[in-house]
Write a structure and sequence with these properties.
By secondary structure, the chain is an alpha/beta fold. Helices cover 32% and strands 24% of the residues.
Length: 402
């Protein structure tokens, strides 16, 4: 995944800090703006993981800090819901002027309410997705309930939200109370995906039902069962990101990628970013990659994992072919393989490549009504699979440039 730091100017002249992330293969189907939770920032766990999964689905994502939060300029005490919406509009304008107008807005919690209001002002937005979003912006006042009386009396108060202290002014409350999200939803007329957890203790799932009822079709609701409000479990965030990516494909035109072509049996393609490699084997497409700890994105098996998979699948197929021909009751075969390099003998010259051998540790599980003699025979047959024999033979590889 490629990414770059960006800055753009808010309605009130503050420099807002963002990070623009691109699909790893550089094929961008759409741009999106991500709005984070109330008092949050662009680097929260859920924001990062959702954005990463969106890029895997061909969507470039701009996640940014609202005014006065994270790395953005400004005083949070002077902001309100309206300024959040204005920040989203500024982010969309930045993309439009420098890249391409965004087609998708994604918002988490109060950020979800903000993207709904922003989408109503942006004709080029083609879809909106919300996560754990309140049905009215004023819902967030429950987070500062103990301080509302002080705010009303003195004009402001310091409140503790999520372990951090923020100054909330009366204008913030007044602004929230003047927003009618149901009215905006009724006139929105854009595809809307509402995602919410029944176990959300910050914003109850009933809010999702109210948003869904107020919105017009096309609209969708997906339950994030078991997730907490902040999506602190990265599995939940991955689910949301992949879900939004798949859902969006229904509402935007996605050009078919240039097909890999070759007169050989297999072709692999890698550009100058990362290690995520496109592969076409016959009519089938797949990805290979390296683990994150060596600089990859872990979007697919490593080359050696693919090699082990080739050996394991060949053994499984060969055993079943033999058992079926013999009419033996082999119900299932599982082949477990690990690859390593070992030394052929104890040596003092262990850096010598000739002293090392490639080792595939193979364990086979057989299920079915088989005699011990049949099981042993199937094990012997597994060693005769074509890939096994290829790996044990002398292999010559000729490489040339075209």
């Amino acid at each position: 995944m490629q990414s770059k730091k960006v800055q753009f100017t808010s309605e009130h002249g503050c420099q807002l800090s963002g990070r623009l992330e691109f699909p790893v293969d550089s094929k961008i189907h759409a741009y999106a703006v991500f709005a984070h939770v109330f008092t949050g920032n662009k680097n929260l766990t859920a924001t990062r993981y959702i954005s990463r999964c969106l890029t895997q689905n061909g969507i470039a994502v701009l996640r940014f800090d609202f005014t006065g939060l994270g790395d953005s300029e400004g005083d949070f005490a002077d902001t309100n819901f309206t300024s959040n919406v204005e920040d989203i509009l500024a982010a969309a304008e930045f993309l439009t002027e420098n890249y391409e107008a965004p087609k998708l807005l994604v918002g988490h919690s109060l950020g979800g309410a903000a993207v709904i209001f922003a989408a109503s002002q942006l004709p080029y937005i083609q879809a909106i997705a919300t996560v754990g979003t309140p049905s009215e912006p004023e819902h967030v006042t429950h987070l500062i309930q103990d301080s509302i009386e002080t705010i009303e009396a003195t004009g402001k108060a310091k409140v503790n939200i999520g372990g951090r202290v923020f100054t909330i002014k009366k204008q913030f409350l007044d602004d929230l109370n003047n927003k009618n999200m149901h009215g905006v939803l009724r006139e929105l007329r854009k595809p809307l995906l509402v995602m919410h957890s029944p176990q959300d203790t910050i914003v109850a799932v009933e809010n999702a039902a109210e948003i869904y009822r107020a919105a017009r079709h096309p609209k969708s609701f997906v339950s994030l069962n078991g997730a907490d409000h902040m999506l602190t479990n990265k599995t939940d965030a991955h689910y949301v990101g992949n879900l939004v990516g798949a859902w969006l494909s229904r509402y935007i035109d996605i050009p078919k990628p240039d097909a890999l072509k070759t007169d050989k049996q297999v072709v692999a393609r890698l550009d100058n970013t990362g290690y995520t490699t496109e592969i076409k084997a016959g009519r089938h497409a797949l990805l290979a990659d390296e683990p994150e700890d060596v600089g990859g994105n872990d979007f697919g098996p490593s080359p050696y994992e693919l090699l082990s998979a080739s050996l394991a699948s060949c053994k499984a197929m060969t055993m079943h072919m033999y058992a079926r021909r013999k009419k033996w009751d082999l119900q299932e075969a599982q082949v477990h393989i690990s690859h390593s390099r070992r030394y052929a003998e104890d040596c003092t010259d262990c850096e010598n490549a000739d002293k090392r051998i490639e080792h595939f540790d193979c364990t086979i599980e057989l299920e079915g009504n088989l005699t011990e003699e049949q099981r042993q025979r199937i094990l012997e047959i597994s060693k005769r699979c074509p890939v096994h024999k290829t790996l044990q033979s002398t292999v010559k590889i000729e490489s040339k440039l075209t």
